[in-house]
Specification:
This protein is an alpha+beta fold and 641 residues long. The protein has five domains: 4-84, Phosphorylase Kinase, domain 1, CATH 3.30.200; 88-153 and 167-276, Transferase(Phosphotransferase) domain 1 (Transferase(Phosphotransferase), domain 1); 337-455, Immunoglobulin-like (Sandwich); 464-545, Immunoglobulin-like (Sandwich); 550-640, Immunoglobulin-like, CATH 2.60.40. Helices cover 24% and strands 34% of the residues. The strands form ten sheets. A six-stranded antiparallel β-sheet has the order 1-2-3-4-6-5, covered by helices on one side. Strands 12, 15, 16, 17 and 20 form a five-stranded mixed β-sheet that branches. It is globular, with a radius of gyration of 31 Å. The two termini are 45 Å apart.
Length: 641
């Protein structure tokens, strides 16, 4: 890895792939971190042009919610973009971490993304690849839209994009983007925004992430499960925005993001400033509840008689006071605090605490779950809403003990069982919950009865690793023909050689991350990373390799010959980065179609004449086909060579 590129000092490589590399670097004079994006030197002209256009579009953007591009240059055979470094988390990672996002946080994030995209739309730039992976959130709670790599503008149309090509991520693409990427407008981005909001509030994508004909059909017909069915907690506001933004008919969608921004401005009006929005997002990322305090208004100018103004102020004050009291009572009721007074002789308070001996190490418990059971005629049975959630309370005892606690809950006095699952170990505690009248007389249970668990994580264990390799298209097992390598102290070692060295047993221990590389002559290389938790002793890897494609060169003797592949007007282009491509009518000019190795049924239609031929596509090979239409004999013939 180079330590210096141009005037920038490279500090680490963040990612590497077939399209190039991404580095973290230092600006020489500003002394700040930047991202250095390098395009692979052997990239095609179309990829180079889009890379340049991404820099040209973003370098003119000056918006707090769009990643800033600082520089663009060429060194040697490689092109580079220098952009803002965002220290934080991507939206897709945030969704995966939390399973789904609360409505309030989802709408706050969506509001920021919409404002960023509205800025781009106002400059007549269409993003065309809106998805959670292209949204970054800094540790300060600032939302940043990034990756304008396939964006288009009125002044800079993609001259390499023909009507048959499709760009974007299929699961987030609008129906019109699938069928005609070149001519989409901002409503295609609005559709993708609806998909992103759907994923935020449900944790699931509304459509399959593959590019099967069934997935395409569902997108084109707008058939997906309502978000409220996936997650009943989805708010009506989020549901309405999703429904209209994701309408498969373009004319029934929002015409402009300003409509969505206006709706959210009203819905989120309690956030009086951008700083309050950022703070709420920051607290959520840190795992803390965001508390929004309404600012007190200072005196307002008079517009009417003083007595009327005074009566109005008193009426407003009374209403506000009544609302606060009602809210406090409702909150206390929901939390069960009324049992401190009402039925205190029938209900008791309970909380659980877990103290984890980290042995002086910065260990992190990955999984903690508590389940309550109540005792009845049939023994112990799970309680309704009996799941206890734990939050980290901090460190004690000179950083040796890591503490987690559950919220205080109120239950009828009686016999219960608490089962706590911590990583690899289950703890069971049977107890009798005393009523509050009895608990208050005992110093130990003054505020609540406490169930305390002490836990010591197990040491690292030997790990057994097995793997299976499959063809990503056909699912065929190709393990025996594939070489596996493991990253052993920053060098790749063949798996069979590695397992034969004495140090392999000591190297393969739990609580570590491992990297594997799979190589096969007819496939693209695949690198797989595996995080093995402290309690895990067996790992089974199933790696799918993408076959190196073959090329079908096809033309017809007559123009306007309709062609289908496997009886479909679309096909999935072969290669490492797959996409959906629409088939255009054949002509005497050669058409180049890239396909994964397989047997395909090619159908040619012309003026009522139909002919289907089975054709084998092999990796790294060209297959040439000429479709001959004989009008006199009313025949269609295939010449394959």
């Amino acid at each position: 890895m180079k330590t210096r590129v141009g005037k920038y000092f490279v500090t680490e490589r963040i990612a590497r792939g077939g399209m190039g590399e991404i580095f973290k670097a230092k600006h020489p004079t500003l002394n700040r971190d930047v991202i250095l994006k390098r395009l692979a030197f052997n990239s095609k002209e179309v990829v180079i042009e889009r890379f340049k256009r991404e820099a040209q579009l973003q370098i003119d953007f000056h918006n707090d919610n769009i990643v800033q591009v600082f520089d663009h240059f060429k060194e040697g055979l490689s092109y580079y973009i220098v952009m803002e470094y965002v220290d934080g988390i991507s939206l897709d990672a945030l969704i995966e971490k939390n399973r789904y996002l609360p409505n309030e946080i989802a709408l706050l994030l969506f509001y920021q993304i919409a404002r960023a995209l509205k800025y781009a739309h106002d400059k007549e730039v269409i993003h065309r690849d809106i998805k959670p992976a292209n949204v970054l959130i800094s540790k300060e709670g600032i939302v940043k839209l990034t990756d304008f790599g396939i964006a288009t503008s009125k002044e800079s149309r993609d001259k390499y994009l023909t009507g048959e090509m499709t760009l974007g991520t299929p699961a987030y693409m609008s129906p019109e983007q699938i069928t005609d990427t070149r001519n989409v407008d901002k409503r295609a981005d609005i559709y993708s925004m609806g998909v992103v909001l759907y994923e935020m509030v449900t944790g699931k994508c509304p459509f399959p992430c593959n590019m099967s004909p069934e997935a395409i059909r569902r997108i084109l017909k707008g058939r997906y499960t309502r978000p409220s069915k996936v997650n009943p907690k989805v708010s009506s506001v989020a549901g309405r925005i999703i429904k209209k933004a994701m309408h498969y008919r373009i004319k029934k969608r929002y015409k402009d993001l300003q409509e969505i921004i206006r709706i959210l401005s009203v819905r989120l009006k309690k956030y009086k400033s951008q700083e309050m929005i950022n703070e709420a997002i920051r607290l959520f990322i840190q795992g803390k509840a965001a508390v929004i305090k309404k600012a007190k208004k200072k005196g307002t100018p008079a517009h009417g008689p003083a007595p009327a103004r005074g009566m109005l102020k008193r009426a407003i004050a009374i209403c506000l006071f009544a609302g606060i009291i009602a809210g406090a009572v409702f909150y206390a009721y929901k939390k069960g605090y009324h049992h401190e007074i009402y039925k205190a002789d029938e209900f008791g308070a309970l909380t659980a605490e877990i103290k984890i001996n980290t042995m002086g190490k910065d260990a992190t418990v990955r999984y903690i779950r508590g389940t309550l059971y109540e005792h009845g005629p049939k023994g112990y049975t799970p309680m309704q809403n009996g799941i206890l959630e734990f939050t980290r309370a901090g460190r004690e005892n000179e950083k040796v003990i890591d503490a987690y606690t559950s919220p205080r809950i109120y239950m009828p006095s009686g016999s219960y069982r608490l089962v706590i699952d911590i990583d690899n170990k289950i703890y069971q505690r049977d107890f009798f919950l005393k009523p509050r009248t009895a608990q208050k007389t005992e110093e130990e249970y003054g505020s609540a009865q406490v169930i305390s668990i002490g836990h010591t994580p197990i040491p690292a264990m030997p790990v057994s690793i097995t793997y299976e390799v499959r063809d990503s298209g056909s699912g065929k097992i190709i393990t025996n023909e594939t070489d596996c390598y493991i990253n052993y102290y920053n060098r790749w070692m063949k798996w069979q050689d590695f397992v034969n060295i004495p140090a392999s047993g000591e190297f393969l221990k739990s609580g570590k991350r491992y990297f594997f590389m799979f190589q096969n002559n007819n496939y693209f290389n695949r690198i797989v990373s595996i995080d093995v938790l402290q309690h895990q002793a067996q790992v089974e890897i199933q790696a799918e390799l993408v076959p190196v494609p073959g090329v079908l060169l096809i033309k017809s003797s007559d123009p306007g010959v309709e062609v289908l592949i496997n009886n479909n007007p679309y096909y999935i282009e072969g290669g490492y980065t797959t996409r959906i491509v629409k088939l255009e009518a054949l002509s005497p000019e050669v058409r180049r179609i890239v396909l994964s190795p397989n047997r395909y049924y090619i159908t040619a239609r012309s003026g009522g004449l139909v002919k289907t031929e089975s054709i084998e596509i092999n990796p790294k090979r060209y297959t040439r086909v000429i479709v001959n239409v004989d009008r006199e004999k009313n025949t269609v013939a295939f010449n394959v060579f």
